[in-house]
Write a structure and sequence with these properties.
Elements: H1 2-20, H2 22-29, E1 31-36, E2 39-40, E3 44-46, E4 52-53, H3 55-67, E5 72-77, H4 83-88, E6 94-100, H5 103-106, E7 110-118, E8 120-125, E9 140-144, H6 148-159, E10 165-169, H7 172-180, E11 186-190, H8 191-199, E12 206-208, E13 216-222, H9 227-243, H10 246-254, H11 261-269
Parallel strand pairs: 1-5, 1-6, 9-10, 9-11
Antiparallel strand pairs: 2-3, 3-4, 6-13, 7-13, 8-11, 8-12
Amino acid sequence: MRRFLILATVLALTSQAAAAATLERIRSSGTFRIGYRADAKPYSYQNEQGQPAGYLVDLCLEIARALGPDINPQFVRVAAVQRFEAVRDGRVDILCDPSSVTMPRREIVDFSLPTYFDGAGVIFRSGKPIGRFEDFAGKRIGVLEGTTTEQTLRASLGELNVRATIVTVREHGAGLDLLWDDKLDIYFADRGIIAAILREGGRPGFELSRQYFSYETYALALPRDDGAFRLLVDRTLAQLYRTGKINAILEKTFGRTPLDELLKALIVLNSLPDR
């Protein structure tokens, strides 16, 4: 038992030391590794020039500036199903994508202050409205694999005893191609992402549901047990919220559309003082 306790203590201390070294590693290497997604527009995506872009990417660039002028942001593309493991395993220092905060995910990574508020929505064919989970009965439904959106879909249909065919995909583009090609009846995803797709030339004959089918709070995923790094990230976000600089960042991505009341509340509640 004594040997076990000693080994457990050594492993815990080693883990804490490794986690606490994030800032030291960034500053000694001069490189800040930012994990981003290619298909999560408008939050985190690859633009037409092949460059990382989006609201959450812009937030991470603000954090890079807070690290100092000698720090070089290095973008690392991650897949949705592997993104938290990329943080846990040290392949990226921070994850800048629409990640919903959940307790199981907090067993793998830590999270920053909240960054956005969204929820699930659906794209469907015009004339066949979808307003509640019961309307999914008998439908072929696409959803991104390994996400809270998939969990919400499966749990909700199960609780309501609604029978439908769920088709998982690894990227939003693949799911929407299936929808356009009439191989799906519905595509179920973060409402902000699919709204952006329709705004930028979605296919005629398709609509976005007005309803939210879930409510989710996004935050930036960070290495666990690294208080110093998390404090720098949270301080940067709180300053953006408190000074109103967040408005220009939001406008760059979402235009001058009035902010949702829940998003306004999120910003106000996390405008933490720095003194």
